[in-house]
Design goal:
With 422 residues, the chain is of the alpha/beta class. It has helices at 7-17, 67-78, 92-104, 120-138, 158-163, 168-171, 207-219, 244-256, 326-341, 344-357, 373-385, 408-421; strands spanning 27-33, 36-41, 48-52, 112-117, 145-149, 188-189, 196-199, 225-230, 233-234, 240-241, 260-264, 288-291, 303-308, 361-362, 365-369, 388-389, 391-393, 397-400. Helix content is 35%, strand content 18%. The longest helix is centred in the N-terminal third of the chain and has 19 residues, at 120-138. The protein is globular. The model has no long low-confidence stretch (mean pLDDT 95). The structure holds pyridoxal-5'-phosphate. Pyridoxal-5'-phosphate is lined by residues 57, 119-121, 124, 153-155, 231, 235-236, 264, 266-267, 292.
Length: 422
């Protein structure tokens, strides 16, 4: 098979054969190393090196081609055991990973269990099933409704999609052909894959929304609610950080009313926000945590749903083919091992540098907001022309998620390019 396609050929073939999805610019990626991506920008005739300030939406948390990740892949292929169905037969890497995930997530490590899958949306899908299964086992048949937030993004499969409330295009027509995907505040929907109410998100930087939220909490009816799904920092929704006091009030009310708390850490998990999990900032011990992206080591897709033991499934209630495969699990273990070795002082320096430039956000997950979507998109394009790869978030923000181990020099370089483009 040829590896000599020109950039234009790759682009044209992508358009010809690839189903339309989320490709939004003309960068063709050919290689990568550390915090950099090597590729071609259609229209420019020279291949270039781009600073990757997206970490590929958080997947490449320790950059591209990290030796520890390559070594894990090598070791596993050396054993010639690249795949076995981890949910059908146990393997050493999978059990080690599940134990590790129980240890690093908040709460008693012996009081938890893990379901392994292949993506963020599957980790959310499993979380919904855990909640439903437990209610059924308890005979709590009235608890059919789920809560999530305006601005929420939890994935693209049935239950996860039902929880979403960020962009209309994600949901429009996928539950009801005539449905335009629009949801106003507090509106309940029965016609998604499950009944969901989307409530206002108490955004730390917006006093209005936190005041509204407190008033709203007083009248929030929870008797028929199964679980609430929370992103402590909304990623796709625009890097919006939840207000601490509002979260505490919400958690207290949910606990009092027997509502399960699920935290989606698919984007925030594994040190992206400066601590192992965003939950650690809030001293929150949820019933369920969803993990993916960074767990892949930027290499092998994986998802994980960590639950309190009492949520465990009955045999056969849930499974999959690729979850818990030894290759993905070995890579995930190597990634966690590297995260645990990150020099704290240097890490907090990097966070400080990023925070000084972009005060809104948490840890290495921050944003710059523009007046309009059009202006934001212009800056994204200009940055790309200046060899800085970025992605948007929400309607008019740019998301800053450089690798956690980026050097200070490269971090400053990226910030300076962005400043120039603005
Ligand atoms: N949950 C959150 C918070 C996400 O940011 C994403 C993806 O961006 C998902 C779930 C879905 O993950 P995936 O695209 O791996 O299915």
């Amino acid at each position: 098979m040829s590896e000599q396609l020109t950039a234009q050929q790759i682009y044209d073939m992508g358009k010809q054969y690839g189903a339309t999805s989320t490709v939004s610019n003309k960068l063709i990626i050919r290689g990568a190393s550390g915090s950099f991506i090597y590729g071609d920008l259609i229209g420019k005739n020279v291949p270039s090196i781009f600073l990757d300030f997206t970490s590929q939406v958080g997947c490449n948390a320790i950059g591209h081609g990290h030796l520890a990740i390559l070594d894990a892949i090598d070791k596993q292929s050396g054993m010639e055991l690249l795949h076995s169905c981890g949910n059908d037969w146990f393997n050493e890497q999978a059990v080690l990973l599940m134990k590790k995930l129980c240890e690093i997530t908040p709460g008693d490590s012996l009081g938890k269990k893990v379901f392994l899958s292949n993506s963020g949306t599957e980790s959310v899908e499993a979380a919904v099933k855990f909640c439903k299964a437990r209610r059924r086992k308890n005979g709590e048949f009235k608890r059919e409704r789920f809560l999530s937030f305006h601005g929420a993004f939890h994935g693209r499969s049935g239950f996860a999609l039902s929880l979403n409330c960020s962009k209309k295009v994600h949901t429009a027509g996928f539950f009801h052909l005539r449905d335009d995907g629009d949801l106003s505040f507090g509106q309940q929907t029965k016609d998604r894959a499950m009944p969901v109410s989307h409530i206002c998100f108490p955004h730390k930087y917006d006093r209005g929304s936190t005041e509204d939220f407190k008033a709203f909490l007083d009248i929030l009816f929870l008797e028929n609610v199964n679980a609430i799904f929370i992103e402590l920092v909304q990623g796709e929704g625009g890097i919006r950080v939840i207000d601490h006091e509002c979260l505490n009030l919400l958690v207290e009310k949910c606990r009092k009313n027997n509502v399960y708390i699920v935290v989606d850490e698919v984007q925030t998990g594994l040190m992206r926000t400066g601590k192992m999990f965003a939950c650690d900032h809030y001293k929150l011990e949820p019933d369920i945590i969803c993990i993916a992206k960074a767990l892949s080591g930027g290499a092998i897709p994986i998802g994980a749903t960590v639950v309190k033991k009492e949520f465990d499934f009955e045999p056969g209630q849930h499974s999959n083919t690729f979850g818990g495969n030894p290759l993905a699990c070995r890579v995930a273990l190597a990634l966690i091992n590297e995260l645990e070795k990150i020099n704290a002082r240097e890490f907090f320096n990097r966070i400080g540098i990023l925070e000084e430039f972009a005060p809104q956000g948490l840890g290495m997950m921050r944003r710059v907001v523009f007046d309009s979507k059009q202006r934001r998109d212009q800056v994204l394009d200009l940055a790309l022309d200046n060899l800085l790869l970025l992605i948007g978030a929400g309607e008019k923000a740019i998301r800053l998620m450089p690798p956690l181990n980026i050097s200070e020099q490269h971090l400053r370089l990226g910030i300076n390019i962005l400043k120039k483009c603005m």
